[in-house]
Amino acid sequence: MKIIIINGPNLNLLGTREPEIYGKTTFQDYFSQLQFKHKEVELTFFQSNVEGELIDKIQEVGFDYDGIILNAAAYTHTSVGIGDAVKAIKTPVIEVHISNTFSREDFRHQSFVAPHSKGIVIGFGLHSYDLALQAFLE
Predict the structure, then answer these.
(1) Which residues bind substrate (predicted)?
(2) In this structure, what DSSP letter does residue 50 have?
(3) Is 104 assigned a ligand-binding role in the annotation?
(4) pTM of whole model > 0.85?
């Protein structure tokens, strides 16, 4: 099984950015743990702060991967383009958020990705990625 995690803006700062919301673990450290736990999966990840690069990656992998775990971060709430990219591909997408976006500012309650996703995992910290991965494995 071939799964990619695609992370959007500012997620490269995990471990230092607002640790009270996002925790103190870097994504690279967490990703290594996830790879070790799920050795049966060809698991990769991509991160960009640039909207167009995220769209390009979604289109690149969206026809031959078994699944995409997408945390579009702030672009979730603003990017029609990312939502359209998810809608245009064949690979199923699970939208993920580390924090509970519904307990935060009102603008974070809207998602342009959710209507085109297989499902959503929100608010379980970095464990949200593992929950999404388990959904693909079942």
Answers:
(1) 71, 77, 84, 98-99, 108
(2) -
(3) no
(4) yes
Catalytic residue among 30, 97, 116, 129: 97
One DSSP character per residue, 98-117 reads SS-GGGS-GGGG--SSGGGS
The answer to whether 122 is a known ligand-binding residue is no
Residue 131, exposed/middle/buried by CB under 10 A (0-12, 13-18, 19+)? middle
**Does the annotation count 116 as an active-site position?**
no
Confidence (pLDDT) at 106 = 76
- Please confirm, yes or no, whether 97 is among the known catalytic residues: yes
Q: Give φ, ψ of 78 to 5 degrees.
A: -130, -20
- Per the structure, the count of domains in the chain is 1
The mean pLDDT values, 10 residues at a time, for the chain of 138 residues are 97 85 87 96 98 98 98 93 98 93 71 96 95 96
